[in-house]
Amino acid sequence: MEPFEDIQSKLIPFDITNVDTDQIIPKQFLKLIQKTGYGGFLFYDWRFDHAGNPKKEFILNEPKYDKRQVLLTRDNFGCGSSREHAVWALYDYGIRVVIASSFADIFYNNCFKKGLLPIYLSKDKIQYLFDLAKNDDPVVDINLANQAITISEKKISFDIDLTRKKMLVEGVDEIGYTLSFDDQISNYEKASKVADYNKFMVKN
Amino acid sequence: MQKTLFDKIWDSHLVIDDNHNLNADNSSGPSLIYIDRHLIHEVTSPQAFASLKQGGRKVRRPNLTIATTDHNVSTESRSLPIVDEVSKTQLETLSRNCKEFGITIYDMTSPEQGIVHVIGPELGFTLPGTTIVCGDSHTSTHGAFGALAFGIGTSEVEHVLATQCLWMYKPRSFLINIKGNLSKKHAITSKDIILNIIRKIGTDGGTGMVFEYRGDVISELSMEQRMTICNMSIEGGARAGLIAPDETTFDYLRGRKYAPNESELDKLIEFWRSNLKSDENAAFDRVETINVDKLAPQISWGTTPSMVVDITDSVPSPDQYANGDENKRKLAARALEYMDLEPGIPMTDVHVDRVFIGSCTNSRLEDLMEASLVVKGRKVSTNVRAMVVPGSQKVKLQAESIGLDKIFKDAGFEWRESGCSMCLGMNPDILLPGERCASTSNRNFEGRQGSGGRTHLVSPIMAAACAIEGHFVDVRNWL
Ligand code: SF4
């Protein structure tokens, strides 16, 4: 995973609640077997009509929002399917931060595996950011080390668990880290328990 | 300390608990939990294997994982070649990876192939008290056995393959107490119960939580009906749903392929009986009680699984749905436009083009038996194309052995091979833009069953009755 770099970007005010991963990356693009190349298919059914032409009214097709790296949205972002392709598509498209009032669990987890920063804020603060984006449209500065979003003079701080923060800042190889606990894992496997599930194994 | 069923399973799987893993500020970090059972399929695993190979890593316990092909497979005759080259590559990649790493696979040639959440229980791979993961959000299905089962992303699939463990923050607990009695046997099903729960708590009601479903109604359900409920826990935002195992659960396990042999199983059952339930005074973070006395068949009208009404209701207006919440109102207005529905129209006046009976929610033998109750001796409406897609090859064979295929085919239903099929339409089974479908699956998101397609979630018996009439009906009047 790439370490997370601090971001200066204007916001993409994506004013939709309950965005599910079927919309973020529709199923017809889940047949690929690599992790890259999904950016062109991000929000495909919302971005393109049945003939494959861009829909003018869809926000990501407005030139103004081109190359922006921060997606601002509302409740329950990333609900539905567990497909990590949703995170890959956002990342590939150029999004580095998603700010929402809440996230679905699996999506939230998946973000940290790629280096996408999900920030949750209260509904009031989300509304404040939407108002800003629609009026002044300022550049926001997102600093992970300080857990802060700075807009002009104002600072909004956000919460993030320290372990997850460290993973993002350092771009940790999680599997390598876990394998350093190999002794503990082996001890767990060997310990005798009444219900020793890992010892009833699949026989061919 | 009084513990919930979830606490008990969690505690018995801790390799490293969060106290040993404190952050610099003394807040607790994630725990490392052991994973007893891992299921994989063709769509979310290729990148995991590729990255594993890239890192020169091995699969730690190949004998705790099984694989199947389900999402992409054609439901046409198995003797036909796969036309879609990209799907074919994905299916072949899984076979190759399984062979290379020594993992058992049930592919399209296998008599035990099927939807991953149908075959896990069917093979006795799913056991009470275990932790089970799969790169698929509906892994919650296996919670019906009192297993802590949840969906994971592809990076976590790789992590489990390499370490057989996962880092996890302990979710909170949510008790859903089901009170009352279902009024009409067969007409009101466990699908109606779960749709009603999601309608009440919302699609994010369970975020960060694990459900435990409890109550006499639940105890009386068969394993297959319990699986339907736990399956849709994810639609209520929870990663997992649990039902404490009981005699129904234990009876189901006996004689299954991967279940422990008789004497081992008896010992386990004794342990499960006394251990795998929440202590009487265990505290939950949230408790809701749902009364099902007056429960009517449920049907979704919009594009999230909480946009649900009684079959006797009309399509709601955005204001009715939103109850003062502006974001919800916008969401409902958008949903009505997508679904091409006008507020005030009775649900029973809504006509459909397609009917789909299948998916990991409702494609087991009992689901097909229930649906057949209203199909026998009747004909599918001439305006409807209807299909039944059994969840596994075993379900298909069992159904055929009791003549269900004949009942469906005589009525004009298509009788297909097993797979995910039109639940998500990664294979050729899709809705055309604008087509409306009565579906027994679990998601009615925009485009879920095909770009521009419109999905209404219902129980199998409601879907079957709808196929006959060509529009939605209150199936209680038929029984
Ligand atoms: S049947 Fe549908 S929900 Fe179930 S695993 Fe397949 S695609 Fe997912």
Q: Count the beta strands of chain B.
A: 19
Question: Widest sheet of chain B: strand order?
Answer: 5-4-3-6-7
Radius of gyration of chain A, in angstroms, nearest whole number: 20 Å
Major β-sheet profile of chain A? 7 strands, mixed
Q: What ligands does this structure carry?
A: iron/sulfur cluster
The CATH class name of chain A reads: Alpha Beta
What is the CA–CA distance across the termini of chain A? 36 Å
By secondary-structure content and strand pairing, the structural class of chain B works out as: alpha/beta
CATH superfamily (homologous) name of chain A = Aconitase, domain 4
Mean pLDDT of chain A: 94
Discrete helix count of chain A: 8
β-strand amount of chain B: 15-25%
Largest interface in this structure: A-B, 61 and 90 residues
Largest sheet of chain B: 5 strands, parallel
Number of domains of chain A: 1
Using only C-alpha atoms, the radius of gyration of chain B works out to 22 Å
In quaternary terms, these chains amount to heterodimer
Shape summary of chain B: globular
**What portion of residues of chain B is helical?**
25-40%
- Kindly report the spatial arrangement of strands forming the biggest sheet of chain A: 4-3-2-1-5-6-7
Question: Which structural traits does this protein have?
Answer:
heterodimer, A: 204 residues, alpha/beta, Aconitase, domain 4, 7-stranded mixed beta sheet, B: 479 residues, 5-stranded parallel beta sheet, 19 strands, globular
Q: In words, what does this structure look like?
A:
- Chain A is of the alpha/beta class and 204 residues long.
- Chain A has helices spanning 21-24, 44-47, 85-93, 105-114, 123-134, 162-170, 174-179, 182-190, and strands at residues 7-13, 70-72, 97-100, 117-120, 139-143, 148-151, 154-157.
- Chain A has a 7-stranded mixed β-sheet with strand order 4-3-2-1-5-6-7.
- The longest helix of chain A is centred in the middle third of the chain and has 12 residues, at 123-134.
- With 479 residues, chain B is of the alpha/beta class.
- The radius of gyration of chain B is 22 Å and the shape is globular.
- Chain B starts with a helix and ends in a 10-residue tail after the last helix.
- The model of chain B has no long low-confidence stretch (mean pLDDT 96).
- At the A-B interface, helix 4, helix 7 and helix 8 of A face helix 2, helix 3, helix 5, helix 10 and helix 12 of B.
- Iron/sulfur cluster (SF4) binds at residues 70-71, 115-117, 136, 138, 359-360, 420, 423-424, 441-442 of chain B.
